[in-house]
Specification:
By secondary structure, this protein is α+β, with helices and mostly antiparallel strands. The protein has a domain at 55-158: Immunoglobulins (Immunoglobulin-like). It has 2 helices and 8 strands. The chain has helices at 9-34, 78-82; strands spanning 55-62, 65-71, 84-94, 108-114, 122-128, 133-143, 146-147, 154-158. Strands 3, 4, 6, 7 and 8 form a 5-stranded antiparallel sheet that branches. A 3-stranded antiparallel sheet has the order 1-2-5, with no helix packed on it. A hairpin with a 2-residue loop joins β6 and β7 (146-147). The protein is elongated.
């Protein structure tokens, strides 16, 4: 006669539970790693208000200098106001050189003007001129390492001084 060993339902149930927990853990581990939150891109900096554009750049030539004036559409406030400057950029070409329509102009920063709150939002600065050059100026607002759009450019020729010769009368 064969002796039958009584089944142990408790052991069989415990083994089944452990196997199910392991399988569930593996499923969640691979499932969440595969279907996670997707492919991540590079970090995005916080949104900042755009840098305002300088408008209505105008000029007035006097002797060997030019006075440039411009406006901002509105005042700056807070951190933007304390960290802002205006960059004055100049391109100059000798009048002896032929005019090249469509050629890019090379600008260099010649003056930095700090932003100071005014009631009129009107700003100005002077720049020296050399005779015999065609000048183009533009202004940009610069704040916290960001640069606003270019103002309207102003262009003029600064002629060399021609001395007036008097003729002797006999």
């Amino acid at each position: 006669m064969k002796r039958s060993v009584p089944e142990r339902p408790m052991v069989r149930g415990a083994v089944f539970s452990v196997i199910m927990l392991i399988l569930a853990g593996i499923f969640f581990l691979f499932g969440f790693s595969y279907f996670g939150c997707g492919i991540k891109g590079p970090p995005v900096p916080p949104r900042q208000p755009p840098v305002p554009a300088v408008v209505d750049l105008a000029y007035q030539v006097a002797d060997q200098s030019v006075t440039l004036t411009w406006y901002l559409p509105g005042p700056l406030f807070g951190k933007q106001a304390t960290h802002s400057t205006f960059g004055l950029y100049r391109s100059r070409t000798a009048l002896a050189e032929p005019v090249c329509d469509g050629c890019p102009l090379v600008f260099e920063k010649v003056v930095t003007v700090p932003y100071v709150h005014t009631d009129t939002n009107r700003f100005s600065t002077d720049a020296s001129l050399d005779p015999g050059y065609r000048y183009v100026f533009k202004v940009r607002l610069e704040t916290d390492g960001r640069t606003g759009p270019d103002s309207n450019p102003v262009q003029f020729d600064h002629m060399p001084d021609v001395p007036f010769e008097q003729s002797e009368t006999p």
